[in-house]
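Input.
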Amino acid sequence: MAKQTIVATLQTGRILVSDGAWGTFLQKKGMKPGECPELWNLEHAADVEAIGRSYIEAGADMIESDSFGGTSFKLKHFGLDRRVAEINEAAARISRRAAGPDKWVIASVGPTGELLAMGDVTEEQLSDSFTEQAVALAKGGADALCIETMSAVDEAVLATRAARQHTTCEVICTFTFEQTVRGDYRTMMGVSPTDAARACLEAGAQIIGTNCGNGMERMVEIVREMRAAAPQAPILVHANAGLPKNVNGADTFPDTPADMARLVPALVAAGANIIGGCCGTTPAHIAAIRQAVNALRKGC
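Output.
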């Protein structure tokens, strides 16, 4: 029997578990500062595949791909903008192998670093870049495209529309928020969780959410606001392992697997349907989240 879509599965009432951080994993495997992470899909495919497989073995229902910086704008910094299709197709194919036939690949699509508001780029250029990446990821076997770490509505909308118009993948769109001095949440471009949720859905995203920037505790508040703005939409959360602390010149993330797992019930109560990790999270964090989600199911 064919695998259900993510949305169809969520409609049955299941809470799904996503994966954790990829960048820090690549560093542990030897990636040096200044290297292109996405080039590892071509030059160190086995290492990249091992990252995805470790999250599947930890209990994740879905994994991302090593393609966060896979747009032509990002790859141009490494002289790789003519290899967008090759790199992204390889990234999705690697995660597809790691996930196997029964789990989902939600291929990562990050921001370009260009700002429409500043006149750095045109809408057509952004759309073309996102389309090129999305088509390659779909060709590599992605089930969904996870447009993530967005801060500007216009860029997120263009990425979402490109994915919806040029692939048959499900589309996830998530924003990164920071707490303001007033105690509410905004992206660095001033977008609220309410505005982000509505814009994503209007552009055609089937799943909305938030990633990075916050640990589980603050994500509860963000999800609660998104849920109020979008009562029926599936919501994904990729939380950091707490807020980073600088220890001896290096950023460390303080939340243990148990810390994150403890907040899973509150996150689900706030409206989250898919829970995973971002910066600082490991397979151990995902395994703990898996156990917490399983415990909720047993308690139903």
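The chain has a mean pLDDT of 96.
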